[in-house]
Amino acid sequence: MKITDVKTFLMEGGRRQWVFVKIETDEGIHGWGEGTLERHERAVAQAIHDVSIRIDGRDPTQVERLWQSLYRHGFWKGGPVIGSAISALDQALWDITGKVYGQPVYKLIGGQVRDRVRAYTHAQDLTGVRGLVDEGFSAFKTGGWVVGDDEVNENRIPEALREKIGVMRREVGPDVDIMIDNHGRSRPALAIKQIAAIEDLNVKFFEEPVPPENLDSLQLVRNAGFHTELATGERLYFRWGYKDLIARRLVDVIQPDICHGGGISELRRIAAAAETEHILVAPHNPNGPVACAASVQLCAAIPNFMILETARDMPWHDDVQKKPLKITDGFYELPTEPGLGIDLDEDVIASRPFNEDTHDRRYVPSVNAEDGSPADV
Question: Which residues are part of the catalytic machinery?
């Protein structure tokens, strides 16, 4: 079997625009992957074209050999764009390999260690919280900055966060898990105040308390000695991006993204490294359907899995799948079909082309401090 073609597709998915890759072979077996990267979709599509030349005409079932070629033979390594391109291709290679051997991917990477995959999604107010609980979810995540959309006053952030989480906790009771995503927007001193404000409200984890590029800043938060667990990792790439974070045990939970961090192959290695330090894995996954399917396959097979993020506010997430993944009472059922367990409808993809008009305004608003200076989003 040989790879004969690599095609990319950009699709307007609702709140995101998705980047899909399809690898075709001379035996008629194809595989899907996803490299969605908000606001950089066209860059990823081009990167997929550039790096896929390294695997053209080769056996797609030699997944590890091809992964090494994709990573090593480009000289420039790492980063979100190249990481997303390699991740998408890796997913598609595993999809093909599973189909060749007639098995779900999780059976080829060690077999399942759990019978279903626990998931959480997002809620920003009580209406959203009630809806998720009614759907059967027992966990949700909400934002850590809650004052203003365009301008922020840091002095009000901790108190406002406590009020928000307190209301949510009273609504759902003690048994539903609440997680906070701070998006790395705070300085260490402010992050410490935020966590102190919610320390008694039984938050599952506090995500990205500070920007991810400076581990010493994260160390300051860690040294504050909170009981609330810390999480980070969605903006780290490949195992080398996690090496010091894991070795210094700066967080309790890591959040690699299967779209950016190196695909199924690399996230298995990252998870194994984290397991040696008793760190759990809660993959970042606000992405499209292929990334979600690949994440479910991974989560089924890694022992230190905690919970999987999923996006429930994208109507085309299910519609583009010929047979959507099943989620029941907040748990994904393990697919039994070979490969990733899904296939995409190319007619549906074509009906939702990349949206040039909304591309530059989508996803993330501009956020400024009170004096108008740009702040982290």
Answer: 183, 284
